[in-house]
Amino acid sequence: MKKLSAMAAARFGKPEHGWRRRWYIIIFEAESAAGKRFDIVLLLAIALSVLVVIIDSVTVIRERELFLLSTLEWIFTLLFTAEYVIRLLCVNSPWRYAISFFGIIDLLSILPSYLTFFFPQLHVLVDIRLLRMLRIFRVLKIPRYFDESQVLWQALYNSRHKIMVFLCAMVILSIILGSIMYVVEGPENGFTSIPLSMYWAIVTMTTTGYGDIHPKTPLGQMITSLAMLLGYGVIALPTGIVGAELAIGMMGRAPTTRTCGECLQEGHQADAAFCHSCGHRLLR
């Protein structure tokens, strides 16, 4: 039985014992006190590093504090590099993590600094460092926010088909209104093409109202008024769809930060035995 357990652990991404298992629990799961502290420190580092990148974009400050900003940037880069390497070392399937969403984001957040160091002509890529902001979503692993984030994500996922139908209906409605306005107003009033008229329809129905193109005939103004009134319903409908799914999701059981060792999928129930994504057995 012990041999079979070891074989199963080797197959999954979560190590069965040793320092790699301890670091896996701290880094990938936020149930322990050490895991919570790690996530909080990581989030602070991400926020500060993004702040440094933003300040570095101000020419006056960059010219005056170039050495300080460069030093801070390399401190954060080395810190995130060490974190990325540790993440790869503490899983049994490093390649699976490397090609995951957060794995790619982690790599892209440190790669520009090294590229610009060895290839100065690639300095334009330095702005990719702002992708570090996406790593702020790791806050969703902190138990205080994890349940709420999972409910929200599940509500968006469950309503995806309804939202797609809604978006398709809006595209069709934009084509119809744009075509009508192209016929009613015509090129002499600024509606020079159906695509431009569709742009007007979208801007009007979303109540954005840039004012760069507007109807001048009474009939066109009447159609515009109807489109504006329709726009309020357009805004409310997707909100109602997601809100209904949120209400349903809040009545369900809250997931935890348990992570599948095989596919690294999070959000399993506390008593779940198998991953809801890939079907592999979850290690305790």
Beta content: under 5%
Provide a count of the helices: 11
- Rounded to the nearest angstrom, the distance between the terminal CA atoms is 16 Å
> What is the correct CATH architecture of the largest domain?
Up-down Bundle
Low-confidence stretches: 1-12
Backbone CA Rg: 26 Å
| Helix content estimate | 55-70%
Throw out a few tags for this protein.
Four Helix Bundle (Hemerythrin (Met), subunit A); 284 residues; Helix Hairpins; mainly alpha
Please characterize this protein's 3D structure.
The model is unreliable at 1-12 (pLDDT under 50). This protein folds into two domains: 2-140, Up-down Bundle (Four Helix Bundle (Hemerythrin (Met), subunit A)); 158-250, Helix Hairpins, CATH 1.10.287.70. The chain is mostly helical. The two termini are 16 Å apart. The chain has helices spanning 2-11, 19-28, 33-56, 59-64, 66-89, 94-98, 101-118, 143-158, 160-184, 194-205, 218-250.
